[in-house]
Design brief:
about 220 residues, alpha/beta, six-stranded parallel beta sheet, 9 helices, 6 strands
């Protein structure tokens, strides 16, 4: 029997659920109300980073008298309202999750989002998502390895026996540093070459067999 990874670790925003446009619209709406806008550099810094980083950038743009906590609270209140109303899965995400469930593969979510976001969607997540690791339950957020190491510890597996699905550079960096094999599922994001990273054109068509084969081919570089 061929060796198989023991778990699949999922990023949330832009990997499992299509929240990136909602984050962008919510933040742009708040900026427009104040007559300011993000630059391309701002957006690059924010992708895959903690939402507190975004709040810090926005507070700086809003100017003196605006606290980071105020911005953070407003962004999250608006996001919770929108995610409570609708949750859009990334193409292929539900199908892959169902395939993992059929094969009894445990999953965890490792996200740069905070608990307030995940609490709003928790009841609508697939039941084989056993744990959720958010930025506010670790001392060091992505790109530090702690989030992925924490998820593996909760699942009682070695990170080297996991496949991580990621769409961002900070997320992939975090998972690689923890020891996971990484499948990068956002083709528009260019990752630095790494022997344990393989790029995919998204989740559509990906199966448990594909992830297991990728893991077998790349795990020796852990």
């Amino acid at each position: 029997m061929l060796a198989e990874p023991k778990a699949v670790l999922w990023d949330f925003d832009g990997t499992l659920v299509d929240t990136e446009p909602i984050w962008d619209e919510t933040q742009d709406e708040m900026l427009a109300e104040r007559g300011v806008a993000f630059t391309a550099e701002h957006r690059s810094l924010m992708r895959g980073s903690s939402s507190m980083v975004t709040a810090e950038i926005m507070a700086e743009l809003f100017g003196e008298g605006t606290s980071v906590q105020e911005v953070f609270d407003e962004v999250h209140a608006r996001m919770v309202a929108r995610l409570t109303a609708e949750l859009l899965w990334m193409p292929g995400a539900r199908e892959l999750m169902e395939d993992l469930d059929r094969h009894g593969v445990p999953c965890a979510i490792v996200t740069a989002s905070f608990s307030i976001i995940m609490d709003a969607v928790r009841t609508r997540l697939p039941h084989n998502v056993r744990y959720i690791v958010t930025s506010d339950v670790v001392a060091n957020a992505k790109p530090h390895p702690e989030p992925y190491q924490t998820a593996a510890d909760l699942l009682r597996v070695d990170p080297r026996d996991t496949v991580a699905l990621e769409d961002s550079i900070p997320g992939a960096t975090s998972a690689l540093a923890a020891g996971s094999v990484v499948v990068a599922v956002a083709p528009e994001v260019t990752h630095a070459p790494h022997p344990r990273l393989r790029a995919a054109e998204g989740l559509e068509g990906l199966t448990w067999a594909d992830l297991a084969q990728t893991w077998r081919e790349l795990k020796e570089h852990a």
